Amino acid sequence: MGLCLPETSPEQQTLQIPDQKKGYRLLPLLVNQSGAELRTRSYSSSGTVPRSIMVVSALSGDAASEKESAAADKLQQRHKQGIVLRTCRSQPTQWIDCFRSNLVGPLAAAFIVTPVAIEYIQSKNPGLMVYSWDHWIGWLSVLGNVNRGDSEIRAQGIVLNAWNPCSSGRNRAALAEILPDKAGGFKLNPPVMPTAETPISSDHQLQNLYLQGLVILDPFFISFSASLQAASKPCPFQVHRPESVHSVASEPADDRILNQDGCFQCFVGVYNGYGIPSAINLFHPNQSLLQSLFSPFGHTFIMSKFLLWTVSAAALARAATLEDVCTTAHAKAAVPVSGLVQGVVTNPSSITAAPVYNESTAGSDYYPAGTYDYCNITMTYSHAGKDDSVLLQFWMPTPDDFQNRWVSTGGFGFAINVASNVPAGLPYGAVAGRTDGGFGSFDTQFSSVYPLVNGTANYDALYMFGYQAHHEMSSIGKAFTKNFYSMSDKLYAYYQGCSEGGREGWSQVQRFPEEWDGAVIGAPAIRYGQQQVNHLVPQVVEQTLDYYPENCEFSEMVTLIIDACDELDGRKDGVISRTDLCQLNFDLKSTIGKPYACNASTSMGVTTPAQNGTITAEGVRVAQTILDGLKDSEGRQAYFWYRIGSEFTDAETSYDSTTGTYGIDISELGGEWVTHGLQLLDLDNLSNLDNVTYDTLRDWMLEGLQRYEDVLQTTWPDLSRFQAAGGKVIHYHGESDNSIPPASSVRYFESVRDTMFPNKTYNASVEALNEFYRLYLVPGASHCNTNSLQPNGPYPQNSLGDLMNWVEKGIEPVTLNGTVLSGDYEGEEQKICSWPLRPLWKNNGTVMDCVYDQKSIDTWLYDLDAYDIPIY
């Protein structure tokens, strides 16, 4: 009986295997005659199988080769769902047993010829004429019909060979081992690739027509144009037509969905007993070819939203090697068209592609060490109406390693990218990208191109640095990735960055929430107006209090703080996991009179003599004033400082060998921001801080906020669109960060919570926010790095993997995975608590709990009353 069936229920549609053609989806289901239950293996009454079948291999002359088995295993692990098909012996008498033992469906050799494969075959064989045919035929029929002169078919330049499930052993010479080929699909060894001068005329020729193995099998190949409408009607009589080749090789105008199996029939005995249905019975109204294939087992093969003979082009591309895809020609063809982002003009001629083998990536705080092969892609694009050029770089994993993932990487300081961040995608099978922002090179920083000249802002560079460059890179990079790997299934989009890279991450989540599946954001340099000026606070404190400590004095002070506060968290490990308890319990004055000593040192040509002395009351006063955070002349809080136990990096003084005294050392980050960002002067730093007071710093902070609020402040607190889009954020910050106050991250988290859930209780609002956004304060960690002063603290090296598990598998990171990367505890795995919970060790430091402590929480919250506007 015919099988023109409605779509399957949504719960059956567990896995969609896409083709390169847009809109095509594959969803085969095996059910019994009553349509009740999926069966497994020998189709016995016990057990079930996944509701989808991923076919990655085809009929083979003998048992599967080791290579083929390894490839199948890798794909099975990648896709998790579905059954990976094993090879079967080619003798028909053995096929039934093979079906039973290996769950081989009628798509056993359904590898479709993609446009990429067609182009490759034609480019490698320019003088070769290959053929298709206009109806189903057996192998002996190929011999008799290949020269019949069908110009329409012949012009397509491709061979499509039907797998004959009803055929005899005479076909086994053509059903040899299936292996990956250079066309991005699978090759038939030996393939059937006749020329007009040398038609196939014997089995001997079949065995010797290897011709680089560039033929891809397609057992269920019928005409799209002739059959799509017919398939929507009750099994009409229809003649198969040769437009099928053209239809496959061209883009469809719209989604093409088949909701039934096309009403095929397999007539045993047709064509000398070889059983392939001819044109006149292709759409026979009384039986289905797919049904007949499983008739010995009492099963029916049903397709819903199923392009009848398509196998994942993503799987085909993945079968290719790095050498196959990492070519300038292939990369050039993958460049997306101009206009993908409004005003963006892509430049395919600029692209370069270079395969890299056995590249070792050193251990990083952002990803584990490893050795990888990848394709190094560079390209440029420009903006319509502007004489500019933006440089991009992508690291593309091998097709076998690619896991349908994209990762944008961010910058640091005034740099929009960091080269060492680009390998971050490789351990996770992700393409990773970076941009130069249009600044001239990957090494050129934003501060080098802003302002243009004295008094003239470079607004193009400003907005590229603020958010535009990363948006354009991710849009181009994601489209390029999908083209490069010939994929139309979902590409997961992630972001990873710390410091300036963290701010850039929030710029994308806040402005383009629907474009991201998730982001790992570390110690973000948000609240830019306050953040950069904040680097100048220690120098103004020293100048105001007229005390310039030797650097060794402050270094010893930090050591004493760590020693005193180490065990407040319940564990003696040299790590301050609870800076809040340290702040509540430690009196900095207790360090007065403690000795310090440091050897002489030379840095950047400046020699600092040996330092010996004791910690002074003046030194403690300077340190405490810095720790209290910036307050204006009226005592109002303008900003906050780093946590107690952090290094006093911005408070370091410089030694003047001519006077033998110490003086302020103006922070380049703070000084350059004032000269470039506020004064629009092309000066690398302030020459001095004469007449600069606490009120001056407050005013500079406010000026930066007002001037750059729309582009650099990056504290928009309403993430409703991102939440609605299903995005996830892992936000972390080192608790001993010495460059960006961790209280900055806490303030933003609390601003988002207050804005999005104003009517919920505190606990309920935190719970609601944690469904998609979690903040983690990393014990002992410094700025985007482990801390040499607290080496036994954990670091979330695999946070990107944790994010992917959250997004793709729903594994919520209630605590963040941390690894001790150095020190006596190196290799120890620790859990990092999600804010507002705080870590507390018990049982002599062997068990860690995450606890709620309101007094501790209060130490993280500041009333920035120096401003009359909200500071998110």
Key terms:
872 residues; alpha+beta; 3 domains; nine-stranded mixed β-sheet; 26 strands; disordered N terminus; signal; Tannase/feruloyl_esterase
In short:
By secondary structure, the protein is of the alpha+beta class. It has 3 domains: 10-317, no CATH class; 321-490, no CATH class; 531-858, no CATH class.
Topology, element by element:
Elements (H helix, E strand, L loop, with lengths): L16 E2 L6 E2 L1 E5 L33 H14 L12 H11 L12 H10 L14 H7 L5 H4 L23 E3 L5 E3 L14 H6 L15 H8 L11 H7 L20 H4 L15 H5 L5 E5 L9 H6 L3 H4 L2 H7 L9 E18 L8 E14 L6 E8 L7 E5 L20 E6 L23 H26 L7 E7 L1 H12 L6 E5 L5 H7 L2 H9 L5 H15 L13 H7 L9 E4 L2 E3 L2 E3 L2 E4 L2 H11 L25 E4 L4 E4 L3 H11 L15 H20 L6 H5 L3 E7 L7 H15 L5 H8 L3 E6 L15 E2 L3 H11 L6 E5 L8 E4 L5 E5 L4 E5 L2 H5 L14
Parallel strand pairs: 10-11, 10-12, 12-13, 13-20, 20-21
Antiparallel strand pairs: 1-2, 3-6, 4-5, 7-8, 8-9, 9-11, 14-17, 15-16, 18-19, 22-23, 23-24, 25-26
Termini separation (Å)?
67 Å
Q: In which order are the strands of the major sheet placed?
A: 7-8-9-11-10-12-13-20-21
Q: Number of helix segments?
A: 27
Query: What spatial form do the alpha-carbon principal axes imply?
Result: globular
| Percentage of residues assigned to helices | 25-40%
Beta-strand portion reads 15-25%
Question: Unreliable segments (pLDDT under 50, ≥5 consecutive)?
Answer: 1-69, 74-318
The domain tally reads 3
The total beta strand count reads: 26
Specify Rg, calculated over alpha carbons: 33 Å
Structural class: alpha+beta
Overall pLDDT score: 72
Largest sheet: 9 strands, mixed
EC number: 3.1.1.-
Enzyme class: hydrolase
Organism: Aspergillus awamori
GO molecular function, one term: feruloyl esterase activity
